[in-house]
Design a protein that fits this description.
By secondary structure, the chain is of the alpha/beta class. It is 36% helix and 17% strand.
């Protein structure tokens, strides 16, 4: 956490139990990190649960100040979550699998505070809900950014080597990275420094 914050991260994604993918934390660890995140940095609970009561209880146990749904839920549930968790920004992940993702994103955008575009496969035999290290069709992501009225974050296979091009092609509100900065599950400071430099200078390229 301290390394990411020191180099300019504005949010920390804290990954709870998932069907697959890296970086999963126990809820006690999530709560401990969320309790010491410095002002100005958002702590985000990533949850794969789809039941609203379960999600609300989990967020309250973990104490984060934002919530990211990595699986698609019914639009009615998004409304229930917003009513149950006032003041907690709600981010819906959309796994960009093709042009059909544009409609999915525009529907969800009416009910959440932000979208995050990732490269998972939620319909696979084992759900892939992030952390794949794979990019997706950035032209679809750009279309989503242009179509929705909420901030859009871009994820999925981003690295120090491609993040500047991704920003120029997609024009997201922000970017999200996990596996692209890790080796053997650990964050590599040299990659983080290069990534943040390329984010800040993307428009100059």
């Amino acid at each position: 956490m301290a390394l990411a914050v020191r180099h300019g991260a504005s949010a920390l994604g804290l990954v709870s139990r998932m069907p697959s993918g890296p970086g999963v934390l126990e809820e006690a660890a999530i709560r401990g990190i969320a309790s010491v995140v410095p002002p100005g940095v958002t702590s985000v609970l990533l949850t794969a649960d789809r039941d609203p009561e379960t999600i609300v209880a989990q967020q309250r146990r973990c104490g984060t100040n934002a919530l990211q749904l990595v699986d698609i839920v019914d639009l009615q549930i998004l409304g229930e979550l917003r009513r149950a968790l006032p003041g907690i920004p709600l981010v819906q992940v959309v796994h960009v699998t093709g042009p059909e993702s544009i409609e999915q994103a525009t529907r969800a955008a009416e009910h959440v505070h932000a979208l995050l575009l990732d490269s998972g496969r939620p319909d696979g035999p084992i759900k892939q809900l992030g952390g794949t290290g794979k990019t997706h069709d950035w032209a679809v992501s750009r279309a989503i950014c242009a179509a929705v009225p909420v901030p859009v974050y871009l994820a999925g296979g981003l690295t120090p080597g491609n993040v500047a091009r991704a920003i120029r092609e997609v024009r997201p509100f922000g970017v999200d990275v996990c596996s692209g900065l890790r080796t053997d599950g650990r964050l590599v400071e040299e990659r983080l420094v290069g990534f943040m430099h390329n984010v800040r200078t993307a428009d100059a390229g």
